[in-house]
Amino acid sequence: MELSQREGTVNTERMIDVKSSEYKSYDDLPLFLNAAIVAKALGVAPSSAYELMHEADFPVLKVGNRIVIPKAKFIQWVEQHAKGGASG
What we know:
This protein is an alpha+beta fold.
């Protein structure tokens, strides 16, 4: 962000919207998502995505010591929660 001292205005051209998703379509997502991809898709911090992946109702698949989310289950989870909660 640039601040012009003469004019007292803020130039927002360089501001970064940290809550904006890097993905514009579900089609852009890989078949399995990890914490970093979940964070980018939801526009949250990686630590928030990691915490979310440990919630009881979040659809994870454990492969050895890795935790991944099947793309279809992630989309289903997002759509359920976008409607106001997992119950409906």
